[in-house]
Amino acid sequence: MDQMKKLSLILLIMLLGAEVTTAQVSEEQRTKDVQTIDNLIEALYASISGDKGEPRDWERFRNLVIPEARLIPTGRNEDGENVYRVYSPEEYIGMSDNYFLENGFYEYEINREEHHYGRVVHLFSTYGSKNSKTDAEPFNKGINSIQLFNDGERWWSVTIYWAHESEYNPIPEEYSGSN
To answer: What is the pLDDT of residue 178?
Structure first.
């Protein structure tokens, strides 16, 4: 086999290997993801979760949110002031992708409170964050305030607005999942 064919074969094997390691969920699964609130929330957490070095399923994530969605983390700055940042889905992906790959990040739901009004739903989804699914305890907890919209065909996430638990901001008992 000449050098060019060998190089082509090596590149093909590498590309196929990359496809296997970045496999996305099927179109059928993406359709299921948006049929119920439970499915959407499960898919939302799954799309951003994975061990160190494991690519996230950003196509799945994009399928869950309206293009104009907003992701809004809150916290306290070094001066002790309450602050927030606003990201589009693409800005959030760009900001978090390398961190998730380099450190591992697994987020899961602990508790949920839902409020419905027609096609509009508001959730308080208490979460735990780990670096790996196998970690015994979360390194962080908090609450995602998630707004959902049903267009008559499927559910969409419109806003995900969150705060981490801290000594200044403990999770109230009614949202802790322990009652």
So the answer is: 82
